Structure formats: C-alpha cells, structure tokens
Amino acid sequence: MGLQMDAAELAKFLDQVFPQVRGEFLVEALEEEKILMRLCVQDKHLRPGGTVSGPSMFALADCAAYAMTLARIGEQALAVTTGCSMDFMRKPAAGSDLLATCSLLKLGRTLAVCDILIHSVGMQAPVARASMTYSIPPNRSV
Hints:
The protein has two helices and six strands. The chain is an alpha+beta fold and about 140 residues long.
C-alpha cells in the first residue's frame, strides 16, 4: 500500500486536527514503515527538577504512532489508541528536545501496531520505550 501522505501533508493534517499542540510535535523524517518525530520541549513539558514529564513522553509516543498510522492509511482523524505499554528507562537530558523513532510493526484492516523508542537529543541511550496499538476506522480500502 505504501505511504498515503508525505511528511508535509502529514504535518499539515496534524495541525488541522490538533491545533492545540501546533508546533510542539514535528515530523523530522518519514519512511514507509518508520517515522521520526520531535517534541519541542517547553516549560509546560517539565516536571519539578527540570526533567521532561512522563505524560509529555507518552504524548510524543502516542503522536508518533498516530502519525505513522495516518501516513499509511491517509486522513482518518478518528483512528484512536486502543493499547499502550510504556517503559520509562532513564531521566531525559535537561533542556533538550526529545526524538521518537516509531516503527510500524503491523498494519491490518482494523489495527496498527507500533514500537517507539524515545531519546533526548544528544543522549545515546533511550529514555523511554513504548508499544502502541491503534484502532483504524472502518470503511477504508486496504
């Protein structure tokens, strides 16, 4: 099936359907089964101690899986998260953006399964890992 949206089309669509986070999540690179997304870390993403909060890392993983799914199925705003497992492995670097590498493991008629690895810019070791499952709306061609 291949990509149904390129990086620019995907970014535009995300801005339209989620204007409340415009500019926070950026598509850095897009391939047929992989996407690289950036969380532009701001003060609102930090918890006491100056580290990026768990909910912000979850949002990045979720957004990356959503974007990867949409890139393959097209403009289906009602694709929704149905499952998530997330491991927080180490403290993110202070004052650095986060990068999520999301790999599409399976794309079926009703579900998409993704694996996401999150790094702080400038850190080699991952700070978090997630597995996300998305439900795909009915009435789309495969």
